[in-house]
Amino acid sequence: MPEPCALTVVVPARDEAEVLPALAARLRPVLDGLVAEGLGGYEVLVVDDGSTDATPVVLTGLRRGWPQLRVVRLRTGSGHQAALSAGLARARGALGVVTMDADLQDPPELLPRLLAAAGAGPGGPDDPEGVDVVYAVRSDRSVDGWLKRGTAAAFYRLVRALGGTAPAQAGDFRYTSRAVVDVLLGLPEQHRVLRLVVPELGFRSASVPYARAARGAGRTKYPVSRMVRLSLDAITGSSTAPLRLATLFGLGGAALTSLLLLYALASFALGATVPGWTSTLAVVAGAGTLQLLCLGVLGEYVGRLYVQLQGRPAYLVASDSLEEPAGGTGAR
After folding, report:
1. Do the beta carbons of residue 130 and residue 203 sit within 8 Å?
2. 317-320 vs 170-177, strand pairing mode
3. pTM for this structure?
C-alpha cells in the first residue's frame, strides 16, 4: 500500500532530460526537510507529456533512489495545461498540491514559504477559513528577454482589462488546498488555463514574491506560437468580453456608416463632389476588417463549444508508476 501523502508536487515535463537530475537534487532536500519538521508524507508527481528525448529513462533512474517520485506518462503530447490537469486528477495530497515547472525557473526552495503563507506547513494552523491558494508572483524577471517580459506584461494587462482577476506575473507556480483541487476536478471545462481559472473560483488567497531564475538546462518548450495559443485559450476560456467587443465594433461601424450617409446626402444637396474610389475602397476595407475580426472572435467561441460537445478527453494516461507492481521499472 502507498504511504500516506499530505502534499503532492505536480511537475509537468516534456523533453526535460537535461534538467531533471538538477531538479531532483534541489527539490528532494526541501521536501525531506519539511517531512523532518512534521509535514507527513509527500509525493512528487512528474507528468511526462509525451517526451521524445531521454526523459522517461532519466525518470526511471531517479525513481530507483527516490521512493516518493511518481511518474505519470501521457500517450501523446497534450500540452502544458493538460499535463497539469492530469497531475491534479491523480494527486493524492490530502493537504494540498503545489504545481511547478521542471526547468528550475520556479525555485524549489520557495515551497516552505508557500506552505507557510497558507498556514499549511509543519505546525501551521488548521483554520478552515484560512488561505486556500498561494500564488508565487514573479517580482523580478530580469533573466527573461525583453520580448518575453513585454508580451507577459501585455497579457496580464489585457486579462485585467477584460475583467479577469489573475494576479499580475503569477504563472502556474502555486499552492492549492485539497478543497480547491476537488472543485477544479469537478469543472466540466476541458481546455482550461489554470492560472486564470483558479482566481475565478473566489477562494481566499495570498502571494509570495520571488525572483525568476534562469533555466536550469535545455531549451524553452514555449515558443511564440504556443504562447499565442495559450493566450487565446486563456481569454476565450475565461471571459465573454471579446463577444461584447464584437458587438461594440458593430455598433461603432453602424454609427460611422450613418455619418457617412448623412455626409453623402448633404454633399449631394449642396452640389459638392464626393470623393470616389479611394473613399469607397477605404470604407469597404474598414467594414470588411471589422467583419472579419468579429467573425474571428465568434469563431473562437464556436470552436470551443464544438470541442466541448465532442467530449474528447484533454489527455490520455499511458502509465502511472504508482499502479505498477513492486519491482517494476516504470518504462513502457
Report:
1. no
2. unpaired
3. 0.71
